[in-house]
Design a protein that fits this description.
The complex is a heterodimer of chains A (136) and B (850).
Chain A (H helix, E strand, L loop, with lengths): L2 H28 L5 H22 L7 E3 H8 L4 H40 L4 H11 L2
Helix pairs in contact in A: 1-2, 4-5
Chain B lengths: L2 H7 L13 E3 H22 L3 H31 L1 H34 L10 H10 L16 H20 L11 E4 L2 E5 L3 E6 L8 E7 L18 H15 L4 H26 L3 E6 L4 E6 L10 E6 L6 E7 L2 E7 L4 H19 L4 E2 L2 E5 L6 E4 L3 H12 L5 H23 L3 E2 L7 H11 L5 H8 L5 E5 L7 E7 L3 E11 L2 E9 L7 H24 L4 E4 L4 E5 H4 L8 E10 L4 E9 L16 E9 L7 H22 L3 E6 L2 E6 L2 E6 L4 E2 L10 H14 L3 H35 L7 E8 L2 E7 L8 E10 L5 E9 L2 H9 L1 H5 L6 E3 L3 E5 L3 H13 L2
Antiparallel strand pairs in B: 2-3, 3-4, 4-5, 6-7, 7-8, 8-9, 9-10, 11-12, 12-13, 14-15, 15-16, 16-17, 17-18, 19-20, 20-21, 21-22, 22-23, 24-25, 25-26, 26-27, 28-29, 29-30, 30-31, 31-33, 32-33
Helix pairs in contact in B: 2-3, 10-11, 17-18
The chains are: A mainly alpha (136), B alpha+beta (850).
């Protein structure tokens, strides 16, 4: 596991902990009676939470890029993996389309080159040079 | 992408451009949100004034934060797995899009190159001018008639005249010249040859060189054929050139026969083609042009199903080498035509012939007032003076085989006739009944009875067909009766009694009616007529086996009386007349009229002075039996007359005669004979005492004797003869009753008369005080002697029986004149009618005096 992944893992653990803290905090506040013990318990819990927040704040995750679209997806309560899949799909399609274009232009280039050579034999070397250079 | 760099360096491809827009690091997200959370938390805790509000706000915030952290949790999970690859994907997609844009640019570039190179085209080299320059040293330019001919006109004329002589000689020497080429003229150095279809011109250079053809032209072709479709093919210069080339080849060998053959062939081909183009313009036909087979098949009347397969074959006759037309009518060869000038007119003629031939095959073209015709253009049937019904029917005619047309027309006429009749009938209150379906046997019955009246072969087939039958009833009619129409060439009406059991109809009886037409005017009469027919039928049915004759005109049935009801002393015939009051009232008046030969008076049955009597009754159509009441009355009349006759024989006094009652007198007494010979006796009649047993006796006699009159005679005889005895006994009985009531004397014997049965009576004598009871019984029994007269057997039984036996034994007591007609037996007495009175008195007084 790389360093980045480790720190992501740690961060997600922290967030998990934070979520649990919020649940407990909620229960504490809901049941808050104003007694000393409850005040104490609440303050301990709040402090814990704030510690966690601090941890999050300083998490070393500058290297992890997050596209805004993914953020929007999560905001809307949707599964970001779906977005990933759709994105892969779009990329694949785009690739295929481009490949088709490339092939057809390759054909066009060859046909056109042949015709040019037929009509203008003196241009043969130039045509061949272009063909060589454009054979990716 | 810079392809040049890539190409020359031959290295790894450059890194993809890294996309950073719209991408933020995860740490930023986390940092910002944790800061936000902290700020919110501290804000809420510090700012809220009271505890409850603070609690609520805090809870809301915590719930909200928790939700958001859940999202952050998802985000971190996702970023752990996908974030790295995802940025890569974004880069790839961005690159791919960029490439696509390059291609789009490329396409536009190619297009603009194409457009910009349009003008870069080289002209074709002018080879023709080049050749002219090579040959002549200079190009041939147009002269515009400015150059003068070097040959003089005179020279030309001379040469032509010389040429005329040369070619006329040469042409005269041609061997095997076809006959068709013998019409020619020589002029202007050429021979013009005219044939029927074309002309051509020949010429030759000199007497040694062969002929060559200069010009070829069709003549006599229709002028209107040079239309825009290039029909002017015969005189088309391109084609002519080719033809002339071929002809010149032939002429090189001087073979005029061959030339003729080629030209004729060519002419025929062109002619056929012209026909084809001509046919193209025509509607209502379909033709197929087989250029290879030298044939055109023209299908005409293509929209007609009836006359399908009618066509004309146009081809070449082998004999005459002319174009000929073969006409096939519905697949059969009809006629061969040649020398047809105008195809359109020819087709019209064929249409006319075909339609006339077809119409001739139809037996009868008229349907009502309409006449069946064939549209000569389309071959479709139509009616002159048509009606909507007929038009509907045309569809069927036009879609059926021609062989069925006569049958179809017949059925049409039948339907129309029926429709007409049924409309009239429906309007005038008849009700059509479609439920009746007769079976074959019933049809046979009818057809057998009709055999005389109709054409046997035709109708007998149709008559078994239920479709040809229609049934009508009327409300006021007796049920089961209906008017049956048999529709054939004519409408044959019947009335019939059709009974329907379990959906099966069976014809019980029927009568043919004599009606020819159904019209509104006569429809009322029709109802009367048909109703009358039914009535006659119903009445005659009730007359059963009687002999009768129906006189329809006067609504009369003459019945031979004997065969109907036997009435004694009645005239031979009885008249039965009937009259339909009014069909709406649904009743009819029936009268029965006859005459008695004897004068008889019957109280409730008027008989005229001459013996004529008449019965009448109004009867409903629907009543079950029409004649029942008449028959009842007549039977009664017959009975009563029979009785009267008998009673007169017996010399009885008739007091009163009614149809069902007859009163007569015997002795001093009245007796009434009721219907069924019941005896009714008035109270003062002595026989009344035991009327019941007399009635029984009467019945016994009647059942045992065969003759009614005979039985009546017996009872009368009994009543008459027993009258004396019964009167006497009745008197005794009355006296006894009176005594019993008024004068009650215990010392004397009381008595009682007992009527045991009509032939057995007894008188019981007894004492009322029981201690010294004396009881004697005197019995009298009626017997018959040899002369069938009444004699009476006296017997005495009881306690003192022996005393009186002496009376029987002592002949002296009864042998005196007083007791004549008495015969003493061993223990009884046999008394004749003369001695009866005295004997009875004797015994009665004797017993009472004891």
């Amino acid at each position: 596991m790389s360093e980045v992944e480790n720190s992501i893992q740690e961060t997600s653990n922290t967030i998990g902990h934070l979520i649990e803290s919020f649940i407990e905090l909620g229960i504490l506040i809901h049941d808050f009676q104003g007694t000393e013990t409850s005040k104490e318990a609440l303050s301990i819990k709040l402090n814990q939470t704030i510690d966690d927040l601090k941890l999050l704040q300083s998490a070393p995750l500058q290297e992890v890029p997050i596209p805004l679209d993914v953020l929007q997806y999560i905001e809307d309560g949707r599964n970001p993996d779906v977005y990933t899949r759709e994105f892969v799909e779009a990329t694949r399609k785009s690739n295929q389309y481009l490949r088709g274009k490339m092939n057809s232009f390759k054909n066009l280039r060859e046909v056109l080159g042949k015709k040019i050579i037929n009509e203008f034999p003196e241009l043969e070397s130039i045509v061949n040079d272009i063909n060589d250079r454009t054979n990716g | 992408m810079d392809t040049k760099v890539e190409h020359t360096q031959q290295q790894e491809p450059p890194e993809l451009a890294h996309i950073t827009t719209n991408i933020i690091p995860l740490s930023t997200v986390l940092r910002k949100f944790s800061e936000f959370s902290y700020a919110e938390l501290s804000h809420v805790i510090q700012t809220q004034p009271n505890n409850d509000a603070k609690k609520k706000k805090l809870l809301e915030l915590i719930v909200y934060l928790r939700q958001e952290y859940m999202r952050l949790y998802v985000l971190t999970k996702w970023s752990k797995i996908s974030a790295k690859d995802f940025t890569k994907l974004i880069d790839i997609l961005a690159w791919l899009r960029q490439q696509t844009d390059y291609f789009t640019n490329l396409i536009w570039a190619v297009k603009s190159i194409n457009q910009s190179l349009l003008s870069a085209k080289l002209p074709n080299p002018d080879l023709i001018t080049a050749l002219e320059v090579l040959n002549n040293g200079r190009p041939t330019l147009p002269t515009h008639n400015l150059l003068e001919s070097r040959i003089t006109t005179k020279k030309i004329l001379e040469t032509l005249e010389d040429l005329n002589v040369v070619i006329s000689m040469k042409f005269a020497l041609v061997e095997n010249l076809p006959d068709e080429f013998k019409d020619y003229s020589i002029k202007d150095g050429r021979i013009s040859i005219f044939t029927k279809d074309y002309k051509f011109e020949l010429s030759a250079i000199d007497e040694n060189s062969p002929f060559f053809i200069i010009n070829f032209k069709f003549i006599n072709f229709d002028h209107d054929q040079n239309n825009d479709q290039g029909i002017n093919i015969g005189n088309n210069p391109q084609v002519s050139k080719h033809l002339i080339k071929i002809c010149n080849e032939i002429l090189r060998a001087d073979n005029f026969q061959e030339l003729h053959r080629v030209l004729t062939n060519y002419t025929n081909t062109v002619k056929l083609y012209l026909i084809h183009t001509k046919l193209n313009e025509l509607k209502n036909i379909k033709h197929v042009y087989h250029a290879d087979k030298f044939q055109i098949v023209v299908n005409y009347w293509i929209n007609s199903f009836v006359f399908k397969n009618s066509y004309i074959e146009i081809g070449l006759s082998k004999k005459t080498e002319k174009i000929c037309y073969k006409w096939y009518k519905q697949g059969e060869f009809q006629e061969l035509f040649e020398d047809v000038d105008h195809v359109e007119d020819f087709l019209k003629e064929i249409y006319y012939k075909h339609s006339q031939k077809s119409l001739k095959k139809i037996e009868n073209l008229t349907v009502n007032k309409s006449v069946l015709q064939i549209n000569e253009l389309t071959g479709i049937f139509y009616f002159k003076n048509s009606t909507p019904t007929l038009n509907n029917f045309l569809k069927k005619l036009n879609l059926d085989d021609f062989n069925n047309i006569n049958e179809n027309l017949r059925s049409l006429r039948r339907d129309l006739k029926f429709n007409e009749a049924s409309t009239i009938l429906n309007i005038t209150g008849w009700i059509q009944n479609d439920l009746i379906k007769l079976n074959l046997n019933d049809f046979k019955k009818i057809s057998q009875s009709m055999l005389n009246g109709l054409d046997v072969d035709e109708s007998s087939n149709n008559i078994h067909n239920g479709k040809n039958w229609k049934f009508f009833t009327r409300n006021e009619w007796p049920s089961n009766w209906c008017l049956m129409l048999f529709i054939d060439n004519k409408i044959k009406p019947f009335i019939g009694n059709v009974r329907s059991i379990m959906g099966q109809s069976s014809l019980i009886s029927f009568t043919e009616l004599n009606i020819e037409f159904f019209e509104y005017k006569t429809s009322k009469n029709l109802i009367n007529y048909v109703s009358k027919k039914i009535m006659i039928h119903l009445i005659t049915q009730e007359l059963k086996n009687s002999e009768y004759k129906v006189v329809e005109e006067s609504n009369l049935i003459i019945v031979k009386t004997d065969t109907f009801i036997k009435i004694p002393d009645c005239s031979d015939v009885t008249y039965l007349s009937f009259k339909i009051d009014d069909p709406i009232k649904k009743t009819m008046l029936i009268k029965v009229k006859s005459r008695l030969n004897k004068e008889i008076k019957i109280e409730d049955f008027p008989i005229g002075s001459n013996g004529v009597f008449e019965l009448s009754e109004t009867i409903e159509f629907k009543s079950v039996s029409i004649l029942k009441n008449f028959i009842d009355k007549l039977e009664k009349l017959s009975k009563i007359i029979e009785l009267i006759n008998f009673l007169k024989l017996e010399k009885l006094n008739l007091v009163n005669v009614k149809l069902d009652e007859l009163t007569f007198k015997y002795g001093d007494h009245l007796c009434t004979l009721k219907d069924d010979l019941k005896i009714q006796l008035p109270p003062n009649n002595p026989h009344n005492v035991y009327a019941a047993s007399i009635q029984k006796f009467n019945e016994y006699i009647r059942t045992s004797s065969q003759n009614k009159a005979d039985s009546v005679g017996k009872i009368f005889k009994y009543l008459q003869d027993s009258s004396e005895l019964v009167t006497k006994l009745r008197k005794f009985s009355e006296i006894a009753e009176n005594q019993f009531l008024s004068n009650y004397d215990l010392s004397k014997l009381s008595y009682q008369v007992v009527f045991k049965n009509p032939t057995f009576f007894s008188i019981l004598y007894y004492k009322k005080n029981s201690s010294n009871r004396i009881a004697i019984e005197l019995t009298v029994e009626i017997k018959l002697n040899d002369q069938n007269e009444f004699i009476y057997l006296f017997k005495i039984s009881g306690d003192d029986q022996s005393k009186f036996k002496q009376d029987f034994a002592i002949t002296g007591s009864f042998s005196s004149k007083e007791f004549s007609d008495v015969l003493p037996l061993n223990d009884s007495l046999l008394v004749g009618s003369k001695g009866l009175n005295n004997t009875l008195d004797y015994f009665h007084n004797k017993f009472l005096s004891l």
